[in-house]
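Reading group handout, session on sequence-to-structure problems. Before we discuss, look at one worked example. The prompt was deliberately terse, the way you'd type it at a terminal:

> structure Transposase

The input record follows.
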Amino acid sequence: MTTTSQPKGKTGKADQALAYIQKLYAIERQLKGKKADERLHIRQTQAKPIIPLCQASCRFY
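And the output record:
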C-alpha cells in the first residue's frame, strides 16, 4: 500500500474541516460566563456562518 502525503503548503479537506471545528470551539470558549441572550447573539453572528462551511468540508465523497 502506498500513501502519498500532502505537498507542503497544501490544505486537504480534513485539514479544512479541523480548522472550522477549531474556530467553532474558539467561539464557544468566548461564551463562557455570558448570559443566554449574549450567547445566542454571538452564535448566530459568528458560529452560524461557519457551520455550512464545516459541513461542506466534512463531505469527503
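Points for discussion. First: The radius of gyration is 15 Å. Second: Residues 13-58 form one domain.
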